[in-house]
Specification:
Elements: H1 3-26, H2 28-62, H3 68-85, H4 89-99, H5 101-124
Helix pairs in contact: 1-2, 2-3, 2-4, 3-4
């Protein structure tokens, strides 16, 4: 089955299940307030971390270095903010993990190793064509 289809169907089912479980424990109004509070605080902190990442990226540019980590980190923070805006507990947990710098580094390091090993295996399979050559000149020297 396609991964995107599983995510599209699975995430709302997980969120509905968690809404029912948490709502039965703390009440419907408290569940709604908890979702709103996590969204507001999460977006506020994502904005704060986004500005820190932007500031770090600018200092890298001033040093004439490519701010590669800052670019990837900024994209992760934007994705985390999107997850925090979506109502739900599972998306909030993933969003909070991506917002905090320590866990974001761990997650990004895990996926960067995953993709770098794929690239290394492709680059190690360099194909060479061996052959011989000789300059062919006309008998007249042209």
């Amino acid at each position: 089955m396609n991964t995107a289809l599983i995510l599209i169907l699975g995430i709302p089912l997980i969120e509905i299940y968690l809404f029912i479980k948490v709502g039965s424990q703390i009440g419907a109004l408290n569940t709604i307030l908890l979702i709103l509070v996590t969204a507001i605080l999460g977006i506020w902190y994502a904005r704060y971390e986004g500005f820190n990442t932007l500031r770090s990226g600018m200092s890298q540019l001033i040093k004439n270095e490519l701010p590669l980590y800052e670019i990837v980190s900024g994209a992760a923070i934007a994705f985390a903010a999107l997850l925090l805006i979506l109502p739900g507990f599972a998306t909030d947990v993933i969003g909070i993990l991506l917002v905090f710098p320590v866990t974001r580094k761990i997650i990004l390091r895990k996926y960067s190793k995953k993709y770098s090993t794929k690239n290394r295996s492709k680059s190690s399979e360099k194909s060479f064509i061996e052959g011989e050559y000789e300059d062919i000149e006309d008998k007249d020297g042209k």
